[in-house]
């Protein structure tokens, strides 16, 4: 095995990418170099931890390759005769601003709570269904915007076919030979210019001829059929335009209008529009620019002018050359991507097309495939969540289905949170801004739901929302009794602070945390045992217990037979999330100097939350009662929250409790949905078992990952598992949740050597480190905010700063403590 650092880098015969200047980039990205890159794939002259490649076009949407600029997304199929590029704009959803708040439910809440405490769970369920569910009971769905079809003549039979996605540039390309001519198309999304760019080149002048269609998408099913519409028109002699409106859904009028346009700039040849076709003949190269917009301003305002927005995007690029647009996009993308690099060993298999790598890793090592997954998660974050955009939804921003699984919305009993697990550690802190704004926006209806559904102060948000930021319980009582969706999101605010030490951010977001805590201070009820405070009603996400007299019954809200109810009091996940959130709130109040009586009350309440309970069989209880799940291998690891991503276990640690967490993982097994497997990887990493995490990764990549590297949830593409894998791989290589930084805490045997650069730890430290034969060689710590850095280190280490010996304290348990200065770099070796 060799380290990728010794392997040839992405571009044949070129110095490492990091040292490239922007000026050089234009040369590198000349047509000739692109074609060299294609040859480089055969010659193994690329970095297999940043390039995925394929020798056949995508057969289905989820195997096409994604690009995105946070707002616009495209999936590129890479076909020869008829190319398809599926397009999204992140604000194109069904419906319009609406509310699901139902007034007066709080009057029934005491009765529901009484029934739960009397263990009459089905009766409580029915009452919750009638009075506390939001209306409509379901939510809106994310929509597909358009498809660009390119029809090439005489390109059906090809040789030397390749397509690839290069994570170092954010460009996806396809190259093939047809009738003696080599064609290449490169597609990227530009954030600075807010366009998607499709560049067509060939190695013989005058040989690019095609017909283009920009097609709308319409919902062919469901009650919203025929309330969405679009029209397709030519736009001058060099463009196509698509205009339309969103669908009504569930009685909510479709209020979004959109415009999408393609503009072609050929070099040489002829161009015309004919009906809805854009026809280009015998050009040397062609650049197609795609821009799109809706009238969406925010969750309660849809008064923008999509036409004006698209006009403005095209006006901005009017006098820019392709090269300058490319350079700006690259500089912007690389500003994010180049902050971190992960190198894991490469093997012969690492240079194979991705589908073969996925098969081969099952029996022989290819650690750099895990590095590719790690990088792909960072790539998707940069492509789907940028300051000012919407947060990444269940499918990020990529969706070709008008009725996508779970509506491609925001599920907050794990999925949205998992999307953002890697954002801070992978040095993409700015990409968390959409999530922070999302939390703020949720407090709007969240405050009304707290008052009207629960008679409580503060704000509450449950297990799902959409573009319109509805916050009431949805789906049915079995799912909708998850009251800690907002509380869980608030822990991300604290994590952002932990990784940045940005006191201004903490001050700004403190009211959001406080509002969530306020809700629970009203909502928590004394348990009949007289010891505990519990959420009531409560649920452990989507898991039916075998206790509490659960039996199959016909549910009024969902009009279907169910295994029973999930309603309970004080589920373990509720208790653990609140234990963390209250703790973070108390810490934040101390930093911000809030000494109010409320903070004291929160301290008292925190100690009364049900602590993690060990059941009769020695495993961690999912409920405050010693019940087991009806489904033995249930995919959610809700009660494991306190091990990862939470911290409860570390405050309450005993050997028996650690064992109880471990037992749950053993019971549930290694298989399941993509996101569930990513969670298992992170959980095993926290338990220090890198080989187990690596084994689960191999199953994940084979059984629950698409060829695009999007994760799957069963058969549905979903990006949570992709992001979760990035977070879990980090957790195998660095942990900082326990008051100090631990490097290589769960290193698999296969990953014996490697280098991780630019990865972040709590306390606002950035780390670069290298290991060989599973031994750390050198650690470089950049202190971004000053303050004490605690690091687990060998007894004989030296610390230097600017080449001079630096002082440090040695604590028990092999931890050293360095007093760092902001902006300074410390070397530990
Ligand atoms: C949760 C999960 C499902 C799916 C859905 C979007 O409800 O239990 O598996 O991921 O979210």
Explain this structure.
The chain has 829 residues and is an alpha+beta fold. It folds into 3 domains: 52-94 and 142-338, Distorted Sandwich (Beta-galactosidase, Chain A, domain 5); 105-134 and 384-669, Glycosyltransferase; 754-828, Immunoglobulin-like, CATH 2.60.40. Helix content is 31%, strand content 23%. It contains 20 helices and 36 strands. The strands form 9 sheets. Strands 1-6-7-8-9-16-13-12-11 form a 9-stranded antiparallel beta sheet. β29 (765-772) and β30 (775-783) form a beta hairpin. The relative contact order is 0.10. The model is unreliable at 1-32 (pLDDT under 50). The structure holds alpha-L-fucopyranose. Residues 394, 406, 411, 415, 542, 635, 673, 713, 718 line the site of alpha-L-fucopyranose.
CATH topology name of the largest domain, in short, is Glycosyltransferase
Tell how many strands the DSSP assignment holds. 36
In the residues, how many domains can be counted? Answer: 3
Question: What global shape is seen?
Answer: globular
Strand order, sheet with most strands: 1-6-7-8-9-16-13-12-11
Derived structural class: alpha+beta
Weakly predicted, low-confidence segments? 1-32
Beta-strand residue percentage: 15-25%
Average pLDDT rating: 94
Hetero ligands = alpha-L-fucopyranose
